[in-house]
Amino acid sequence: MNVAVAKTGKGRAVSDLFTSAEGRLPGSPAVIAARREAFETYERLGLPHRRIEEWKYTDLRALVGEVLPLAANPDAAALKRAADAVKAHAIAGARKLVLVDGAFVADLSDVKALASEVGFKTLGDTLAKDAGLLKTASSDAVIALNAAMATDGVVLSIADGTQLSAPIQIIHIATATSASAFTRSQVVIGKGARATIIESFVSAGATAYQINDAVIVSVGDNADVAHIRLMDDAPDAVNITSQFVTVGANTKVNFFNMTTGAAVSRLQGFITLAGEGSELSANGVNLLQKTEHGDTTLVVDHAVPNCVSREIFRAVLDDRAHSVFQGRIIVRPDAQKTDGKMMIRALLLSDEAEAYNKPELEIFADDVSCGHGATAGALDDSLLFYLKARGLPEKQAQALLIQAFVGEAIEQIADDDLREHVIGIAERWLERRQ
Amino acid sequence: MTALLEVKDLQVRVEEREILHGLTLTVNEGQVHAIMGPNGSGKSTLSHVIAGKPGYEVTGGQILFKGEDLLEMKPEERAAKGVFLAFQYPVEIPGVATMNFLRTALNAQRKARGESEYSTPDFLKKVREVSKSLNIPQDMLKRGVNVGFSGGEKKRNEVLQMALFEPSLCILDEMDSGLDIDALRIAADGVNALRSPKRAMVVITHYQRLLNYIVPDVVHVMSKGRVVKSGGKELALELEASGYAQFEDAA
Predict the structure, then answer these.
(1) Closest approach of chain B CAs to the CA of A344, in angstroms?
(2) Alpha helices of chain B — where are they, by DSSP H?
(3) Taking Cα atoms as reference points, which of B56, B116, B53, B42 lies closest to residue B79?
């Protein structure tokens, strides 16, 4: 591999990224040392490219080129715009935690209401003591870069037995054009707890920005968790998010991701089922148009016996959009009676759209039930004609069929209100097409 | 009587092969016409071309509907003007609830005609009335369009749409295929209830049996892409006795 990757396409030395940001990165001297080490890893690897197997279909060197400088702390004008964005994107009844250009903003957040039920700190608070949160079991370059550069994030601790009375919504808002935001958050959900976590990514007037987010979630035994991610960044933004989820025993996790923005996006999730008797339902919809590139990469690791995982993902691709879905199900040697199923379908609305579906099963146990399916195709002409013969104009007929197509994934959202919210997002996307 | 549908010297090709070789047919308001003929005579092609299905190339002739050039209209425009094709094999549309489909379609047609859209309560009331008269259970309307419906249920769903959309021309493409006698009777009763002086129907079928239930005013025999004989309802009985062979030679 060429070592010259330490320079970006525009000749800026990569290490400038770190040295110019260093003064703003929170953490004790030990934390700064850990950051420097992570940055060296990133410097050595450079942005992932097509010869790295996991990134074969999302070549960040070709698609993104370089990492933009760190966004400045938001000023008063930026916070004003962010406040408007919060109003527009807040989910009714949810307790908000707002990150603007990678900085936590207490004034826009519901910390006080939250504190009655949830332990809350910022990433900065946590890193003042130790660097533990910067460590993840991954050699991925973008994750290393996140560890080096993360400016802020939320650290939530939901005690055993807590039944949250309201969802928590973490809202990421970009106000700075042509800048990067790095965030890292942690959510610890105790035994027997019940929680709904929503993450939203939006722009408040910013364009051509880059998001690199990491979320570390651990869920205790007998818990019930809904985790919804709504990525609606600006059409020329980049959003790379890495999620690490560890699930205890007899727990239910209902995860959903919706992608309706960003020129280049990737959600890479690493979910480990570490306790027996748990059920994971992981689903998502990517609605992509123009030249958008949307990647969902999910590794579901059945580390113990008797767990169920279900994955339903749908991509709708218009114009010259590209979708990538890489779904790996790992069944460890001890994980007998694993029941893992994955279904990926892509709908191509244009001759120039492309879908890359890559299901992978790695099964090391012998008494399991695992399966996967992947399809890519156009809308069925006979269905379209039937609808048109009943008076529906072309776009409206398409919209009805697209809603049905994505509906199979959206139906998996257990919470009625959130499901309706996501249906609304899909409907608005379809209306914009008409 | 006013001519509703005028098909004049229609020539149609599918993938380089000519299927209709100059077909002429006039259907007046209030009439029920039956089109009979052997497999491959072009009956279904005619129904598809009238509804605007893609894949057919009209190389000659014209189709007028209420005096307007139908071939210039998109399928959805034809529907809004009052053309309804009851499909031989209605498609299943998983994930699209029947109620949502019916409301969307009805309102799309009304909007295209410049009429006000139905409110939800008015729409529900109308659907309930019509579905009751057709013996369509409410739970069928909650399912995906035609998903898991029996052959009879699918045809009843087509008749339900006819009743809701109130078209002026109904084309029934082999409505009897795949139906047992009871299902056929229910569907035919539904169709008969929709007969009116302002509405015409074209019933396409292989068999005379359907015409016992939906009694036509005019019967046409098609063979090799043309109408080779027209007559009254007794022509259907004659065909049942003697078969189509005599007309194959005539064509």
Answers:
(1) 17
(2) 43-51, 75-81, 98-112, 120-133, 138-142, 151-165, 181-193, 209-213, 234-242, 245-250
(3) B53
ipTM of the complex: 0.96
**What is the C-alpha to C-alpha distance for residues A344 and A377, in angstroms, rounded to an integer?**
12
AA identity, residue A352? E
The DSSP call for residue B53 is -
Query: So what's the pLDDT on residue A82?
Result: 98
- Condensed to tens digits (0 to 9), the pLDDT of residues B157-166 reads 999 999 999 9
Question: Which residues of chain B lie closer than 8 angstroms to A387, CB-CB?
Answer: 93, 101, 105
Convert the pLDDT of each residue in A314-367 to its tens digit: 999 999 999 999 999 999 999 999 999 999 999 999 999 999 999 999 999 999
- Identify the CA nearest to A109 among candidates A69, A152, A70, A159: A152
Q: Which of B132-136, B148-152, B229-233 has the lowest mean pLDDT?
A: B132-136
CA neighbor of B186 nearest in space, from B145, B215, B157: B157
CB neighbours of B76 closer than 8 A, spacing ≥ 6?
A388, A389, A391, A392, A393, A394, A397, B108, B112
Angle of helix B151-165 versus helix B181-193 axis, rounded to 10: 0
Cβ atoms within 10 A of the Cβ of A424, count? 10
User: Region A251-265: what's the mean pLDDT?
Assistant: 97
Q: How far is A313 from chain B (nearest CA, A)?
A: 15
| Cβ count near B21 (within 10 Å) | 16
Q: What is the mean pLDDT of chain A?
A: 94
Size of interface A-B (CB pairs under 8 A): 73
Give the closest of B85, B101, B104 to A389, CB-based.
Answer: B85
Phi, psi (rounded to 5 degrees) for B156: -65, -35
* Rounded Cα distance, A149 and A20, in Å: 11
How is A245-284 classified by DSSP, letter by letter? EEE-TT-EEEEEEEE---SEEEEEEEEEE-STT-EEEEEE
Average pLDDT over residues A78-97: 97
Q: How far apart are CA B56 and CA B42, in angstroms?
A: 12
Burial string for A213-227 (b: 16+ CB within 10 Å, else e) reads bbbbbbbbbbbbbbb
Task: Look at residues B200, B195, B250 and name the one whose alpha carbon lies nearest to residue B37.
Answer: B250
Interface of A with B in 394-423 (CB under 8 A): 394, 396-397, 400-401, 403-405, 407-408
Subunit contact A404:B144, Cβ cutoff 8 A? yes
Nearest residue to B146 (alpha-carbon basis) of B87, B199, B200: B87
From the list A389, A392, A404, the residue facing B51 with the nearest CB is A389
